[in-house]
């Protein structure tokens, strides 16, 4: 298996995630799409690490995973707080920072 | 090796397919399940890459932690309250083509990446890893030497995230009751009220001269 | 002694100015005496100087500017012409200062008056005695300043302030021409001293057109100072000043500065015959214009003001005809009788407690005998009746015009150069004589003869005190005899011979045909006609004026409106200036401010549009991020 193949997969996963962030209105699913992007990135990292015989790729994956976990926790906490204010958590309605 | 190729192809196609599912599925629970699928298959790809530890960690943290969080939250919120999305909304028209373009670009780059330069190779080829006693040990060697500081910081990060999540999500009317004002001032001999100083009540607002 | 003398002449009035200026408050009534004393001393020195002025002395005071080629000195040129002017200026000024002591006796601020008077005399003396154009210009301006100060002496009166400003501004217009002429003169001759300039005239280096241009520009300055059309408008308004001021500055001395200028620059003008024609044209036209307006004036001082303008015009006619000496002659005689007339009118006004309108006078002869007698002498002189002073000088002016027209084969300088037009000038001069005699005796008759039209005023009228009557007498003597003393025989009198050596000062050589006596007779006849007409109109048949008015309805209005000059000036200059001002304001408010406001508005509009990108929505921002990403990566892909 060539490196490129893994890279392509990673790229596809990332793109799908990015598109999803732009498209989905439901905030929870939006967060899921972000996770999807992260997965794609992790895969790319791991692939490079494996093919370059460099463990640092895997190390970075570990860190990325850690950050992903933290981010999900906080994100969902925000979402929970929001859901107490808005009965329906629609991304389009969260525009109080508009200028 | 043929098994590798077969495994790779299967895992890749399904992962991407399920990824598309996350994108498309209306019901968030279904989307979450699709995500779980993606995670597992990516873990499989990690195995194909030769790093079992990563695969394990991926499953434990992602599938076992993050997705579970998602499902908890989904269950907590009233499902009827979740919006039925308007499928064709304005940004879709721009975002979809954009996503396609992005995908094309990314694939193009990825596919066109040159062969790995031998100069860049690190020290951990298969033999070395085996010497260490497996991918876990090899990873540990790097993690606790080169990346020790980031490792510690990551733990602090997790702590912060945990506290943050609690603070953000708490109900405001559940805040501990503040002691009544009069009770605090009972010990003061002067008739002065909101004085600033070491004995001032902690919840007294600092008096700033306001015009 | 000889070298000190020229300095003493301006020094005495300057000292009087300094004294009165510093201690005036304490000196009060004494200030007048100081002023008169200073001027009298100056006059005495001038007399001594004149007796001695055989050789033109030119002592230099100091070098003011010495920058490369441009050297300006403050110095004197005391030649016969200057001597004559000095005598006239200091003499008449002394007499008037004495008169003013009486006239201004009741005025609380008279020290201020007697500060400016000697200052004026000083400036005039320096002007006349200067030896280069720049120095002359400096004192030209100084006399203008003094004129402004003195016209606006009663500064509580708005009309006085306006008149003073008007005088100064109109003068300024003339000064613009003057200054241009000075600049050109320096460019052409490299120096501003008269001697240097005269030396270069007619040489191979000089450009004839430049000479003519300089001559014309300097004449523009003279027009301003000597109130020739169209810069004459300030003189009648200058009557707002006290009568002694009108007498001194606006009759006898300052206004003659223009005539002096042309005479002084005689060689220059002789080298520019075209300019002389212009000078004569302006002069004779002004003479006619002013004389016609004088016919309908009701204020006695205004009649005299327009008369001054008219007589000055005649002086310029003489200059234009090349008879410089004659012009100076008339300048001197005119100084006498015009000052006399002004002071006489001042006496009348003083007697009537400030009344100047002739329509409220009448029958003052028995009440003011001395005033009347002197006034009559002055009037006869003005009307140019033999043997009074004016006759001699005015007659020579007309003779000069006539001779020029006939192209008397005299010195080459008088040779025919479009001289035919002088026939017209001569004829016009005769008409002016008639008009002069007419309005003069109209004035006399209205003021002193007939029935008093305002009985109350008439009853209170009292003759002038000695301090005022004495000057009147002195001037009357001059008005009587000056012409005869100075001008007989015609063309060869005392004055003419005195001025012979002055460069460029010309007088006509000998009498051609017809003989001078005939011309003189014609002048007399014309003048007598004018007097007769006045007598008829204002003593016998008082209805003539009314009939004339009905016959030529527009004429009276035309003259009363001063040939609509004010309207012209208003329309042309004021409207122009206002228009320009409004245009500039409009430009500033609309264009300049508009641009500035536009910058602000544009910014606001732009930002208003740009802020639409700030939707506050997460997905919109994410979209922009992705767009950026796609573009950047795409760019890198394409260009790497």
Describe the structure.
- The complex is a heterotrimer of chains A (99), B (211) and C (640).
- With 99 residues, chain A is mostly helical.
- Chain A has one domain (3-93): Helix Hairpins, CATH 1.10.287.
- Chain A contains three helices and no strands.
- In chain A, α1 (3-23) runs antiparallel to α2 and α2 (27-51) packs antiparallel against α3 (56-85).
- The longest helix of chain B is centred in the N-terminal third of the chain and has 25 residues, at 52-76.
- The model of chain B is unreliable at 185-197 and 199-211 (pLDDT under 50).
- Chain C is an all-alpha fold.
- Helices cover 73% and strands 2% of the residues of chain C.
- In chain C, strands 1-2 form a two-stranded antiparallel sheet.
- In chain C, α14 (300-320) runs antiparallel to α18.
- Chain C is globular and about 115 Å long.
- The N and C termini of chain C lie far apart (104 Å).
- Residues 408-415 of chain C have low confidence and may be disordered.
- Chains in contact: A-B, A-C, B-C.
In short:
The complex is a heterotrimer of chains A (99), B (211) and C (640). Chain B is an all-alpha fold and 211 residues long. Chain B is built from 8 helices and no strands.
Largest interface: A-B, 72 and 91 residues
Q: Indicate the structural class of chain B.
A: mainly alpha
Quaternary state of this entry equals heterotrimer
Global geometry of chain B: extended
Task: Compute the separation of the termini of chain C in Å.
Answer: 104 Å
**Low-confidence parts of chain C:** 408-415
The number of helical segments of chain C is 26
- The gyration radius over C-alpha positions of chain B equals 28 Å
Helix and strand element order of chain C: HHEEHHHHHHHHHHHHHHHHHHHHHHHH
Average per-residue pLDDT of chain C, rounded, comes to: 83
What does the average pLDDT of chain B come to? 78
* Percent helix of chain C: over 70%
Given helix and strand content, the structural type of chain C is: mainly alpha
How is the biggest beta sheet of chain C arranged? 2 strands, antiparallel
Helix content of chain B: 55-70%
Secondary-structure element series of chain B:
HHHHHHHH
